[in-house]
Amino acid sequence: MKKQLTIILMVGSLILVGLNAHAHPKGPKALIDALNLTAEQQQEFERLHAESKPNKKFIHEQRKALHEKRNSLLENYSEEKAQELAEEIAQQAKNRALQRFSHMHQVMLILDDEQKATFLQLMDKKKKGKHSHRDHH
Q1: 98: domain range?
Q2: CA 82 to CA 5: how far, in whole Å?
Q3: How many structural domains are present in the chain?
Q4: 63-72 — which CB contacts under 8 Å span 24+ positions?
Q5: Does residue 46 form part of some domain?
Q6: Is 38 left (phi over 0), alpha (psi -120 to 50) or beta?
Q7: Rounded to whole angstroms, how far apart are CA atoms 70 and 75?
Q8: Is the pLDDT at 45 greater than 80, yes or no?
Q9: Are the beta carbons of 92 and 8 closer than 8 angstroms?
Q10: InterPro entries this protein is in (predicted)?
Q11: Is residue 21 situated within a structural domain?
Q12: Highest mean pLDDT among 8-17, 19-28, 38-47
């Protein structure tokens, strides 16, 4: 049981790191260029991006607190505390994923059909690049 909880905590920590990735391949400017946004679309995209910024700081603080809890747990291990932390990590990862999906959906709403296809291709390439190391194990 201890081994399983330790694995859950390690996986949770990796998820936290992975979820920190941005929703676009090389930042907002590169995405704006890649999608060839109109001036109106660019203004809306920048508004959406600006709205997401305050949440990023909050997420960073949450992640920092979880790392501190993890370190404390590893020094004073208890299965109950490990279970609580694993559940907290999972819940926060779920919340961040839902926020990211919502943000990406809002971006999709401002795109035309061709831009949507490009956006989805860019997201697929980003995902493949992020997980390409898995093919080598």
Answers
A1: 1-9+53-121
A2: 6
A3: 1
A4: 63/16, 63/20, 63/92, 66/12, 66/13, 66/16, 66/92, 67/13, 67/16, 70/9, 70/13
A5: no
A6: beta
A7: 9
A8: yes
A9: no
A10: LTXXQ
A11: no
A12: 38-47
Token reading at 106: 């809002």
For 46, 112, 129, the CA distances from 38, given in Å and listed in that order, are: 12, 10, 28
Report residue 24 as tokens. Answer: 């676009």
**Residue 67 counted as domain residue:** yes
Backbone angles phi, psi at 95, to 5 degrees: -60, -45
Query: Cα(62)–Cα(85) distance, rounded to whole angstroms?
Result: 12
Confidence of residue 20 (pLDDT cuts 50, 70, 90): very low
C-alpha angle 92-95-101 in degrees, rounded to nearest 5: 140
Say if residue 19's pLDDT is above 50: no
What is the 3-state composition of the chain as percent helix, strand, coil, each rounded to the nearest 5?
Answer: 85, 0, 15
Q: How many residues does the chain have?
A: 137
Question: How is residue 4 written in tokens?
Answer: 């399983």
Q: What is the pLDDT of residue 5?
A: 56
